[in-house]
Amino acid sequence: MIPEFDQNGNLPVGFIRPTIGEFKERFVVELGGSGTRGDIFSMYLDYCKKMDYLEVAVKQWVDGSYITNKENPSDIDLVTHIDVLKANKLTELHEDYKKLSDNTHCKSQYRCDAYVIPIYPKELSDEHRIYKKSEEYWSKWFGQDRAGNPKGIVEFSFLNDDFEFGGRENGGNIYD
Predict the structure, then answer these.
(1) Residues 31-58: pLDDT tens digits?
(2) What would the mean pLDDT of 80-92 be, rounded to a whole number?
(3) What residue numbers bound the domain in which 38 lies?
(4) Is the dihedral of CA 161, 164, 170, 175 positive or negative?
(5) Given a cut of 60, is residue 60 above it in pLDDT?
(6) What residues contact residue 96 under an 8 Å CB cut-off, 6+ apart?
(7) 22-66-153-82 Cα dihedral, nearest 10 degrees
(8) In the chain, how many domains are there?
(9) For 25-29, 152-156, 159-163, which range has the lowest pLDDT when averaged over its residues?
C-alpha cells in the first residue's frame, strides 16, 4: 500500500515498496485527470521490461514529480542498481545495456530520467565503498524535494515478482 501524500504533495519519508499494480493504481488511475501519466507509465514499463530481460538489474528507486501529486509530470526519475559483474559479462545484449544506461536515450525513448548505480560485492572493498557512496548520494538526492522538504522514495526489486514480467523465469524475449 502506498501512503497518502503529505502537506507538500510528497510521499512520507522512507522507502515505499509497492507492487507495480499498486504503483499504477496510485499514480495513473487515481490521478486520472493527467494527460501525461498514462503514457509515461507505459514507456517506463517498456524500459523496465528491457532492463529485466538483461538480468542485471537488482533494484530500482523511483522519484521525481511522477510520485507526487503533480497533475502532469513530464517524465519519471529513476536510478537502477545494476550487478556490474553480470553486466560486464554481457555480450550479445551489450548494445541494449549501453542504451538503457544512457540518460539521453532513456529520456527521449522512454520519458525516463534514468541513471544506474553499479553494485559491487563486499569482497571488492574499494569498489563496494564507491557503490555505498553512490547509494548514499542518490538516497539524499531522491529523499528531498526542490524546496528541501523530506520525502519518500519508491523502491522496486527486480529479484522478486515486483514487475511480474516473466522474462527471467521462462526466458521470454520482450524484444519480439
Answers:
(1) 888 999 999 999 999 999 999 988 899 9
(2) 84
(3) 14-163
(4) negative
(5) yes
(6) 50, 54
(7) 90
(8) 1
(9) 159-163
Q: Any idea what DSSP says for residue 25?
A: I
Task: Tell if the pTM clears 0.85, that is, is over it.
Answer: yes
Q: What single letter denotes the amino acid at residue 130?
A: I
Q: Please report whether residue 168 resides in a domain.
A: no
- pLDDT score recorded for residue 172: 35
Q: Identify whether 171 is part of a domain.
A: no
By the 10 Å C-beta count (0-12 exposed, 13-18 middle, 19+ buried), 176 is classed as: exposed
Beta strand 57-63 pairing with 76-83 = antiparallel
- Please give the grid coordinates belonging to residue 30: 487515481
The predicted pLDDT at position 1 comes to 85
| Residue 153 maps to a domain | yes
